[in-house]
Amino acid sequence: MEASSELSFVTTRVAREIRAHREARGLSLSATAARAGLSKTILATIESGAGNPSLETLWRIASALDVTVGTLLAEDEPLHSRLIRRTDGEWISFESGVPGRLLYADGRDRRIEALEIRVDPGTNYASRAHAPGTEELVICLDGTLTVGPKGDEQRLDSGDALHFAADLPHTYRSRNGCLALCIFSSPAIRGH
Length: 192
Fold this sequence. Notes:
Elements: H1 3-24, H2 29-36, H3 40-47, H4 55-65, H5 69-72, E1 92-93, E2 99-106, E3 110-119, E4 123-127, E5 135-149, E6 154-157, E7 161-165, E8 170-174, E9 178-187
Antiparallel strand pairs: 1-2, 2-3, 3-9, 4-8, 5-6, 5-7, 5-8, 5-9
Helix pairs in contact: 2-3, 2-4
């Protein structure tokens, strides 16, 4: 790819990333420009792919969107399909004692992990609060499961799900045993 084509590709990619992150946060062009200390016209030009922002301008926009400059440059590898067989991965015991196997982990601007967990009959697993902003989505695959922040636990039957703030102490328990899918989502740690 020649230099002008490569620059055009990067400019288009940066424009797309800025727009996507701005819209995902529900911010208008005006609000984002104000947060970044830029004019609305400059930001609109960059988002259209017609601008060639300086590193300082990218840093200002990244700060306004609470992401890294690398995120705006879309430096992560593009997503490729990844087949995860039920027989892949070994079962391990996590800090709370609940046995599980890691199905997926992603360390981009928001860390996501998917675990298959096995809640043994009659066992109560207590989990400490995770990092601020961490959320869990727990899907009961087989059996019944009582899960959630202490004092606000919910009973899930097969096929039910619970999304909750996991930056509070929480528990998992099942009278007769349960197999569940647990998806963690937490903000990635950013350097300044």
